[in-house]
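Figure-free illustration: sequence to structure, shown twice.
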Amino acid sequence: MRFMNKIVPAILEKNFSEIKNKLSALRGLAKCAHIDICDGVAVPSQSWPFGSGHLGGFDDFDFQKIMNEQEGMPFWEEFDFEFDLMVADAVENFDLYMKLGPKRLIFHPEIKVDIEEFKNFLEGLDMYIRDVMEIGIAFKPSDDMSIVSQFSHKVDFLHCMGSDRIGFQGENFSEKALENIKFLKKNLPGVIVSVDIGINLENAQSILEAGADRLIIGSGIWKSSDPIGALKSFQNLV
């Protein structure tokens, strides 16, 4: 892994200005920011650039400015951005999402449905892209770990969702997810596992002890009465 940051704040917002506000609050405190993109199709929820209610999504004004290279993501020189693509068109519109300037992209192929299609997509990527950007595959607690394990040498990291209900912040962390982390770390030496959903100050240490390399934290930070204090408390755990 070229860049490791154990605590990564997650941002899930419908409004681009709110993304900018949260990034502004994180300046100087976090090097990496995780942006959740939900299209209302792959998951029930919508977030920027789909948050306007248009399922097409790409008519969002700020998104179009980035696509047209008129501007970049807010504070792009200060953050490594990772985008969690909870969208139905992640492979088809890969080139568009690349224009957001990601350090990492996280994909959510249906493990039982289009996994072969995703393997073909990975194999067809230009080597330059794989050199400059990291790719992760997300999986839910209920997914088949034998299939997930097949990707350990095809992607840069495995992204463990803490709940089967994705696209929302504030979900409870599943004990099955903890078992999955332990399974992967035991059976796939050297695999990088990031963990997302349901992480709080009460369970973060046990998730790290299970073998998690990176914690992606949304509501544990932003729903706190003191978000910056909460972020620092998480950072003090590692």
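We now fold a second protein in the same way, so the two outputs can be compared directly.
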Amino acid sequence: MTDLPPAGEHRDELPEELDVSGYVGQYTFPDIARRRIPTVIYLVVAGLSFLLWVTHRGSGHVLVNDGFLWVAVALAAIALYQWSAAWPLKVGETDALVAAVQRMGFPVGHASAQLGWSGLRSRPVWRILLYSAEDPPRRRGVVLVDGVSAEVLFDFVEDNPEDWSSLKRA
């Protein structure tokens, strides 16, 4: 049996800009400020719903009722929140890694960065795990870098507790 959909049926797929399978080179995380596009759509639908409610209330119209008002209020509230959470991602992965390396105080070997969000308004924060440059690494650290201002929010360094003795170079 095959996993292919029947002819003419559409399956969900990643947007082209998020599909990394064909990409060669440094990956650029899409800007979070794109959340403002659906926000505008929500506000337009909220405005139209409110306009319909205002023009048809009390007229006994069957298809327009107080639900239009509630939809308008709900969509406007969602849009306001989404607009406030659409932080511009001004700090890229490379800039965040540079800020983290400067904070560590030791030569860095391997490092890994992950974008996360913090707080009620989902402010972007880079979480960076770093290992010292020795082989095997003697120290490791984690650094949180604000994705909007490049400010280091948190850092922690410790001796590497991992046992690397069983891994021998050939």
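Summary for the second example: The longest helix spans residues 36-56.
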